[in-house]
Structure formats: C-alpha cells, structure tokens
Design goal:
85 residues; 3 helices
Length: 85
C-alpha cells in the first residue's frame, strides 16, 4: 500500500515537472551574450593549471545532486509518516 502511494506521488510529481518544463520556451544558449571578458578567460586558464576547474565542477554537481536527493527523501519520509498516522 505504501509503495503504491509512493509510486503514485512520485509519478504525479514527475508528470507535473515534465508539464512545467514543456511550458517553458526553448532557449538557444549559443545566442545568449554570455561571453567572458578576455582577462577573466586568461585568469581562469592560468588557474586551471593549478586547480582543475572541470574536476571541481564535477564534484560540485555530485554534491548538489546528493543534497537534493537527501532533501527529496526527507520530504517523502515526512509525507509517508503523516499518511501513516
């Protein structure tokens, strides 16, 4: 029963997120004026010799994903605990 309820909630939440994403307009990121000034690009290039920025971005992405997963799990746990009462 609880697994069916969790499947229903997550399925509904997924459908809601997909609906909201489908309503957003498509954006061509290459058309946006996001160019860095040349001085900043040179400084990041020099910094990349000592600190691998790509690896830091990968670590940050994994960390944010894990924090998001823990927060979603906590919300699901609270919903399940309130439904059981």
């Amino acid at each position: 029963m609880i697994t069916g309820l969790i499947d229903f909630i997550t399925g509904g939440a997924l459908q809601l997120v997909l609906l909201l994403l489908s309503l957003l307009p498509a954006v061509d990121l290459s058309a946006l004026p996001l160019a860095m000034p040349q001085g900043v690009a040179d400084a990041l290039g020099a910094l990349n010799w000592f600190v691998p920025v790509g690896d830091l971005i990968d670590i940050l992405t994994a960390w944010v994903g894990l924090v998001l997963a823990v927060n979603v799990a906590m919300v699901v746990q609270r919903v399940v605990s309130t439904v059981d009462r």
